[in-house]
Specification:
Helix content: 55-70%
Oligomer: single chain
Radius of gyration: 30 Å
Shape: elongated
Number of strands: 5
Distance between the termini: 44 Å
Low-confidence stretches: 69-74
Length: 297
């Protein structure tokens, strides 16, 4: 069925409306990326403070056994926290982090127990046969990250307290330049002796050496909780920045496709309109010639 000028007008109008929506989503995604990347940068100063505190604690004592590991725990069990997405229009965002998680856990000894942040990545991990023990909703703002991280810490610690696993890994996508991202992982627990030695080597920024107050053990536990909080917060914020980068890339492709569609529609509309004008002119000329011939006769 061939298009008419009226049907082409409707298609051009619909494509224009869709392009407006796409460009609005592009602007929102770009704004969200800046928001989450800013939170990660702001976190760096706090992490530096916690790092200095941990270094001060470790310099006062010899490196202990791997922290966070329990003798009664099954050394082969692995806790995994995977950050994904709840929403669409993110390309292969969930597939990338899920496939990376599946491949990495398969290379590690022991049976994994997985928490998923986001329904879509949860479904993909379930399809792969990984044992899932929890699902969290993806936060929709920087302020919502802190309650999520607190909930993850409470639940993961409850499972560790039961001796269900000793090792904890976090998996997420990390943003790169140019609206790109890459999947990464970090071992959160146990905190081994090498990690402690590296922190003990961190130089104190002033000539006034620190002193650990009110018992080193209590201070060390508090600092380790903050270290784990920062690690999870950063992983979540980087995942959200990557999600919006993926959405931005998808919207950019959609915007380009709509531009090409509109160009083709306008070209077809003008060609069809010109064809109609030519036909009308031909009819007028033919009528004029017929009338002129009739007068002569």
């Amino acid at each position: 069925m061939s298009d008419t000028t009226e049907s082409l007008r409707r298609k051009i109008s619909s494509a224009g409306d869709l392009q407006s929506v796409v460009r609005t989503m592009k602007a929102l995604a770009a704004s969200s990326i800046a928001q989450y990347e800013k939170s990660v940068r702001a976190l760096a100063d706090y992490y530096r403070t916690v790092e200095l505190g941990l270094g001060a604690c470790f310099r006062e004592s010899e490196p202990a056994a791997p922290m966070g590991e329990r003798k009664e725990a099954d050394a082969g069990a692995i806790g995994a926290i995977v950050f994904g997405s709840d929403q669409g229009l993110v390309g292969k965002f969930n597939e990338v982090v899920a496939d990376y998680t599946i491949k990495t856990l398969a290379s590690l000894p022991g049976k994994p127990q997985v928490w998923a942040v986001g329904e879509r990545v949860h479904a993909r991990l379930a399809d792969a046969g990984l044992p899932l023990i929890g699902l969290f909703a993806v936060p929709n703002s920087v302020k919502a990250i802190t309650p999520l991280v607190g909930q993850i810490q409470i639940e993961s610690e409850a499972h560790r307290a039961k001796g269900q696993y000793a090792r904890v890994y976090v998996f997420h996508n990390r943003p790169l330049s140019g609206a790109l991202y890459e999947p990464v992982s970090q071992r959160l627990l146990p905190l081994d002796a090498q990690w402690q030695r590296d922190l003990a080597k961190v130089r104190w920024p002033t000539g006034n050496l620190p002193e650990v107050m009110r018992g080193g053990a209590a201070t060390l536990r508090a600092l380790i909780r903050e270290y784990l909080f920062i690690s999870l917060f950063r992983a979540c914020a980087e995942s959200l920045a990557s999600e919006n980068a993926s959405r931005l890339a998808a919207m950019q492709r959609a915007d380009k496709n709509i531009d090409e569609l509109l160009e083709n529609l306008h070209r077809t509309f003008h060609r069809l309109r010109q064809s109609g004008i030519d036909e009308e002119l031909f009819d007028v000329i033919s009528g004029f010639e017929a009338l002129s011939k009739g007068h002569k006769d």
